[in-house]
Amino acid sequence: MALEDLCQASCVSASKLTGLFKDIENTTPMGWVRDRRMERACQLLVQTDDSLAAVSAAVGFARQGSFSEAFKDRFGVTPHAFRAMRGQTSAPQPESSRAGE
Length: 101
Hints:
Elements: H1 3-10, H2 14-25, H3 29-47, H4 52-58, H5 64-75, H6 79-85
Helix pairs in contact: 3-6
């Protein structure tokens, strides 16, 4: 999904949409989309035994390496480590949100 797609779907300009997202969500539109993808990845890692490649593809990444890097940037652990920690209270929580973009 590209910013242009979001603008067309919401019938507003890129600058207006970006401003609204920054005011309301404290991130950019694409940052918001990325956060939702990472939250979904957490759900899949915990609720399924799908391979990391399958989880990566399910949340829109063409390359597993790109997914693993983005996941680690977001949560501070690799998807493999996150899955290994599932069920432990120290596991990163998918609903946490990073400020800014």
